[in-house]
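Appendix C reproduces, verbatim, an entry submitted by the partner laboratory led by Prof. M.T., so that reviewers can inspect both the input and the predicted structure.
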Amino acid sequence: MKIKAIIVDVAGILMTGSDGPMIRYCVSKYKIDKKTFEKYYFRYFVQFELGKISEEEYVQKLSKAIKRQLQKDFFRKKMTYNKLFTKNIEFFSKLKKKYSVYYLTNEGNPYWNNVMKKLNILKAAKGGWASCQIGHRKPSRAIFTVVLKKIGCKPREAVFIDDNPRNVRGAAKVGINVIQFKNLGQLKNELRRLGVDV
């Protein structure tokens, strides 16, 4: 079946992830055990990415859990660690001239909207969604089912690209063609095998 749509993850492919450096920054700044901080950092981030809590509520919950008052510009600081992978952006910007390219990311707002505007993520995609807009996170089947409906594609007409193997497996369970991203050369080869003109 001919590929009509390409769905791509953001952090790790289009830009650097910010969780690792942000965690290291906070562990150093607030003098806290890394495992303890990570436990609560990710626990509340899941709620944030689902759109269940705001940025302010996230900071409040995390501050209370670690018994430290986090800085008010927590998310602004986090955003400083996001940097574009220029070659990958250029590749997808060319690909979107031939195919419908969409991004799909686990993120909350307004953080995600600010990142998207700052880095001009739409240069590499015609559109896309953050998990908070859908109410489901990768790797759940639900998020992929919703996205397929939104773009009007059958599973075998789409390709999902992500560097996280759990997310790749989630998309595969819905029947979507999947590629676990390792590097740009590998990605091009995998896309060619699926009949995508790169």
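The CA atoms of residues 76 and 97 lie 33 Å apart. Additional entries are available on request from the coordinating office.
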